[in-house]
Amino acid sequence: MRVFLIFAFLQKYNYIGATTMLMPVRCYTCNRVLGHMWKEYKLQRDAGQDAAEIFDFLGIPPKSYCCKRMLISHIETIDTVLGIIPGE
User: What's the pTM?
Assistant: First the structure.
């Protein structure tokens, strides 16, 4: 029930749509804030830009492999999750 209420709130205020996802806010390893970088990373990746250039643009240092992992390995599953919540 809590999950449904959270998603209902996010939908009401347009935080969830076809292009957004609940990206982890911080890197699990170094605790750097990454949540605000996901949209820009996705836009540039879809435009065909090189990953190294994207990370330079976002300000992620070359040796921060943990933060790069968070962005590269993220999979958007919010639309699937929203489809299986009871009551919709």
Answer: 0.64
